[in-house]
Amino acid sequence: MAGKAAAKQRSGCPLSVSLDVFGDRWSLLIVRDLMVRGYRTFREFLHSGEGIATNVLADRLKKLEAAGIITPELDEKDARKINYRLTEKGIDLAPALLEIFVWAARYEETGASCEIVTQMSEHREAVLAETRRRWRERDLTPLIPGVTGEKLRIMKGKGGLLKT
Amino acid sequence: MAGKAAAKQRSGCPLSVSLDVFGDRWSLLIVRDLMVRGYRTFREFLHSGEGIATNVLADRLKKLEAAGIITPELDEKDARKINYRLTEKGIDLAPALLEIFVWAARYEETGASCEIVTQMSEHREAVLAETRRRWRERDLTPLIPGVTGEKLRIMKGKGGLLKT
DNA sequence: AGAATTACTTGCAAATCGCAAGTAATCTGA
DNA sequence: TCAGATTACTTGCGATTTGCAAGTAATTCT
C-alpha cells in the first residue's frame, strides 16, 4: 500500500532508478532537513520554509520509508511524535546532495554565501565526514548554523568542523 | 514563454533552487544522455530507453534551455535536426550525476556492473576529467561503451580513460 | 476537563502527465 | 521530380498528481 508506483518502462540505469525514488521537488528537501538541519518530525519538515503541503509531505515520508532511506522512531517522551531518521542508505546521499548544493550555489541565485560553498568544495571530505559523524552520533545541531546570516567557520581543533 | 513557472514559496537553499530546475523524473536523464552517451537530438532522447513522452521531452528541453543548462545548435548537414549541447553550467552537473549514479548502483537494483561503479568511485577525478574533455572536444563516443554488456577498462596511456 | 499540539486524512479544483494522433519542414530514393 | 520517410515538435484528452483548506484522532499541557 505504501509502496512506490512501479514506473512504466525505464532503463535500469542507476540514474533512472534514483529518479524513480527521489525525482520530485520535495523528497531531497526532506533528506536535507534530516541530514544537515537536525529536523526529525513532520512538523519541522512542514515548516522548513519550502511550503510543502501536508498531504504531499505524508506521501513523501511514506515513499522515502518504503525506499529504505528513512525510518520512523517513536519518541520516548511524547507518544504523539514520530522522529524520522536517515538510514545508512539515506546518509549516503550526502555526497550527491553536496555536489548539487555546490553546483547551484555556483550557478543559481541562492541564499548560500560564497564562503560556505568554498569551504564545502575545499574541505569536501571533512564536511562529509562531519555529516556522517553527526548522523552516527545523533547529533542534531545544524551542520550549517543559522540557515540565514551566520558564518561558517572551520574549527582548528580535532574533528570539529563547520561549527558556528 | 519558455520560462519556468515561478515556484510559489521556497527557501533560497541551493538544493531547493536546484530542484526547481531539475526536480522531476526526466530532466537529469536528458543531461545524462548528453553527458555520457553522446546523444544530441530529440529523437535520440526519445528512444533512450526511458519511455519519455514527446510532449514532456519538448517541455523539458525548453526548460533546460531556459535554465541555461543546454543550448540548441543547428545541424549543418540536415536542417531538420537540432543538436542540443550542454553548456558549461550543464557539464558541471557531472559530479552530482556521478554521485547519484554511484549511490544507486550501490543501494538499488540497477543494470550497472559492480566493476563500473568501482572504477567510478576509485577514479572519480579521472572520470570527471574525461567527461569534461569529451564535452570540450565534442567527442560523442559514449563514456561507458555499450550501455549493455561491454566492460569498462582503464587505459594506461596518457589521458585515455574509460574507453572500450 | 478544556485547549493545544502532533501527525496525519479527506475533498476538490487546478496543474501536470502519459498516450495517441496530427503537423510542418526537410530530406531521400526511384 | 515527387511520393514517402524523417525530424521536431504540437494538440487533445483522460488519468494522475499537486496545492490548498478543512477535518480527525491520539496525546499532552494547564
Describe it.
The structure is a homodimer of 164-residue chains. With 164 residues, chain A is mainly α. The first copy, chain A, contains 8 helices and 2 strands, in the order ααααββαααα. A two-stranded antiparallel sheet of chain A has the order 1-2. The radius of gyration of chain A is 16 Å and the shape is globular. At the A-B interface, α1, α2 and α6 of A face α1, α2 and α6 of B. The structure holds a DNA duplex (30 and 30 nucleotides).
List keywords for this structure.
homodimer, 164 residues, mainly alpha, 2 strands, 48% helix, globular, disordered N terminus, disordered C terminus, DNA-binding
What is the gyration radius of chain A calculated from CA atoms?
A: 16 Å
Strand content of chain A: 5-15%
Into which percent range does the helicity of residues of chain A fall?
40-55%
Main beta-sheet annotation of chain A:
2 strands, antiparallel
| Residue-averaged pLDDT of chain A | 86
Number of helices of chain A: 8
Unreliable stretches covering 5 or more consecutive residues of chain A: 1-7, 147-164
Q: Give the distance, in angstroms, between the N- and C-terminal Cα atoms of chain A.
A: 43 Å
The interface involving the most residues is between: A-B, 49 and 50 residues
Strand and helix order of chain A: HHHHEEHHHH
Number of strands of chain A: 2
The rough form of chain A would be described as globular
Write out the strand line-up for the largest beta sheet of chain A, numbering strands in chain order: 1-2
Q: From the structure provided, what is the oligomeric state, counting identical versus distinct chains?
A: homodimer
Instruction: Report the structural category of chain A.
Output: mainly alpha
